[in-house]
Design goal:
This protein folds into two domains: 105 residues, Alpha-Beta Plaits; 133 residues, Pseudouridine synthase I, catalytic domain, C-terminal subdomain (Alpha-Beta Plaits). The chain is an alpha+beta fold.
């Protein structure tokens, strides 16, 4: 990094197809290409020095993002357009940067955020999809979205989400605040949407794993409340597949001018 320019903090929005990566951050026991490594290599090439990035929320293998947010620091004299075009030129297929903006040094992609939002897309029809097979979750049995929505309301508010926490979750505590949760049907789509201050490892997929049996009628609506109160992961449902899960929004009330597009992914925006 040259002394001629003072380091500037930059914020960017990233979208990616998680099916093409081994998660946001490569783990020792899951070697392979990660979104983070791909981005850091591309940004470092444009900056002409090593760059580390911080994201709003890590996603695991197979999970997608339409509006992931990152920040990085660089003293390289680049414009917003220069960063965006240069980074995208050096990224592999399946990931891109939508925009890059300068921001003050107090901004932090993770700690400045007050909430994150995910959408879980279920293709609910008898025949598995040929298109987008690795970007949605297929469920062949008919689902009652209204029952799933009713059951999910038990999760609103501040709770101990131990029952929805993966056994290898490294979070310091299981308490999270669910700000919004809904389930709705759009023709063959059943969409679970969740917004919380933060999420535990596999939390959304484990919530889906409880709501799916309720939707197909093999568990009662009350089961979601019971699972929450048990605070025991072994008493909950299976972990639903990651292919239907998308990171779609993050809220930075201190930075209202960031052009975060929370309508994605594109196929959902077209149908809503």
């Amino acid at each position: 990094m040259t002394e001629a320019h003072q380091a500037q903090r930059w914020v960017a929005s990233v979208e990616y197809n998680g099916a093409l990566f081994k998660g946001w951050q490569t783990q020792i026991h899951h070697p392979g290409r990660s979104v983070q490594v791909s981005l850091e290599r591309a940004i470092s090439k444009v900056a002409n020095h090593d760059v580390s990035i911080v994201c709003a929320g890590r996603t695991d293998a197979g999970v997608h993002a339409s509006a992931q947010v990152i920040h990085f620091d660089s003293a390289a004299p680049r414009t917003e357009h220069g960063w965006k075009m240069g980074i995208n030129t050096n990224l592999p297929d399946g990931v891109c940067v939508d925009w890059v903006r300068p921001v003050d040094a107090d901004f932090h992609a993770r700690f400045s955020a007050v909430s994150r939002r995910y959408r879980y897309f279920i293709m609910n029809k008898p025949v598995k999809p040929g298109l987008m097979h690795d970007q949605v979750t297929w469920w062949r049995r008919p689902l009652d979205a209204e029952k799933m929505h009713e059951a999910a309301q038990a999760l609103l508010g501040k709770h101990d989400f131990t029952s929805f926490r993966a056994s290898d979750c490294q979070a310091n505590h299981p308490t999270r605040t669910m700000l919004d949760i809904s389930v709705k049907r759009m023709q063959n789509w059943v969409v679970l949407e969740v917004c919380a201050n933060a999420f535990l490892y596999h939390m959304v997929r484990n919530i889906a794993g409880v709501l799916l049996p309720i939707g197909q009628g093999s568990k009662p609506v009350e089961w979601c409340q019971q699972v929450l109160e048990l605070k025991d992961r072994k008493q909950a449902g299976v972990t639903a597949p990651g292919g239907g899960l998308y990171f779609v929004d993050v809220d930075y009330p201190g930075y209202p001018d960031l052009p975060i597009n929370n309508t994605g992914p594109a196929f959902y925006a077209l149908g809503s």
